[in-house]
């Protein structure tokens, strides 16, 4: 969004007919909110990628530190901005290219390449299917096996829309925290 205050100012300053009582002074444009029309299709304007601690299920054992992470995510959701929240599992320095698993609701553990997460975040910025979604991601490669890429035969680029299209609306990852414990 761009407000052309200088052009309006110069009309007042140089065109005496427009405002004969004009006096030069401080220019201020108070705003309480700004709204913009977004082009269709709407894609995320904000992508938050945060490394998920082992699981939201461990929030109590982690002295409720994840409550703050989840509150931040709620604020993003409530902001009105088109967003995507990516929760990668344990980050590695391995190369991108491994097969992936996307899930929702804080259900997975595993590892994923930092480079792959960066590609996913950029892909989310370009995808209407990622807008308003929260998900986790990991590679299919177990922790015990390093993932390597043969430079002579690199993996093909991924179309992340294939994954984004499978996401369900309204799953935030904190559903497990909101479940009542079963009495014993």
TrEMBL record:
SUPFAM superfamilies: NAD(P)-binding Rossmann-fold domains
InterPro entries linked to this entry: NAD(P)-bd_dom, NAD(P)-bd_dom_sf
Entry's transmembrane regions: none
Source taxon at top rank: Eukaryota
Stretches assigned to the NAD(P)-binding domain: 59-128
Segment forming the signal sequence: none
Name of the featured protein: NAD(P)-binding domain-containing protein
Lineage, broadest ranks: Eukaryota, Viridiplantae, Streptophyta, Embryophyta, Tracheophyta
